[in-house]
Amino acid sequence: MKVLWNIISIVFLCAVCDASSLKTYYMDTAGNIIRLQSTASGKSSSGILKSHSYDTYINRTLTITAPSEIVASIRLLDLRPNCQDVLTLYEPSNPSKALSVCNRFPYRSREEDVYEKRKTLYASSGTLIVTFAHKPGGSPSSYDGFQFTFTSVRSIPCSSYEFQCSNFKCISAKLTCDGHNHCGDGSDAFECRKVSPGKIIGIICGVVFLVIAAVCGCYIIAKRRRQNQTETTIIHQPAYPATYPQ
Predict the structure, then answer these.
(1) What Å distances lie between residue 20 and 11, 17, 96, 160, CA to CA?
(2) Does domain 20-152 correspond to CATH entry 2.60.120.290?
(3) Which residue has the higher pLDDT, 204 or 52?
(4) pLDDT tens across 172-204, in order?
(5) Do domains 20-152 and 158-192 have the same CATH topology?
(6) What is the model's pTM?
(7) Regarding beta strands 69-78 and 85-91, do their DSSP bridges make them parallel or antiparallel, or are they unpaired?
(8) Burial of residue 145, with CB atoms counted within 10 A of its CB: 0-12 exposed, 13-18 middle, 19 or more buried
(9) pLDDT tens for residues 93-110?
(10) Rounded distance between C-alpha atoms, residue 90 and residue 130, angstroms
(11) Nearest CA-CA partner of 76 in 44, 123, 124, 108
């Protein structure tokens, strides 16, 4: 019984750990370099960079590196008007194609807001420079700032532990269906609308496993209770003498 519950606990903990969110970095405290791991490392191959608090003057630059390529996808932009604050992403080998944004993105539906192509930058060299220039004055605390996802990707062919995007890039299979645009074209989230036969089989197997575990647990508990009751009856049974005095 104890072994069975240990197995169930391990499976549950693995599921919880796998469902954990991406690591979040803040522009003012992230340091000078953020190093992404390869697509084989699961969720460690991606992260989120956001503005923490920019009430004070910030003219900040940091570098993001990856073993192969990087996809950066801006999800939130709510900065002060008239481009008082500017976020710029660019590849050192190709600065002319920098993605420079300011002000705020108008409200859109979730899909349009996350997957709009003009908010995505590919760094084929595996190095991405991020700068955030903030002019002093005004009330920046009343704005939400920025947030973008950056992910380590590589070109096809993809391995069994990777997901193939519609743009022929490979990302970790653990990054799909988490609400972030890791591929750059949104295909890692659009595919979540389709329930594949493999996922259906996996769900059924999981449910069957839990049912079997519950039945086995109940059976073992009931059996032990019966054994305990039998032992108690034998121990406390009064010992009558073989013969009674006349």
Answers:
(1) 15, 5, 37, 21
(2) yes
(3) 204
(4) 999 998 889 999 998 998 867 555 445 566 678
(5) no
(6) 0.67
(7) unpaired
(8) buried
(9) 999 999 999 888 765 444
(10) 7
(11) 108
Where do the domains of the chain lie?
Answer: 20-152, 158-192
Instruction: Decide which of 1 and 172 is more confident.
Output: 172
CATH of domain 158-192: 4.10.400.10
Tokens 């993001």 correspond to: 64
The answer to whether the CB of 88 falls within 8 A of the CB of 65 is no
Q: How far apart are CA 58 and CA 131, in angstroms?
A: 10
DSSP-derived secondary structure letter, 81: T
Q: Which two tokens stand for residue 105?
A: 């993105």
Q: Which two tokens stand for residue 148?
A: 């973008």
| Mean pLDDT along residues 198-226 | 77
Whose tokens are 């939130």? That residue is 76
Which helix or strand (DSSP H or E) is residue 131 part of? strand 127-134
Averaged pLDDT, 149-176: 94
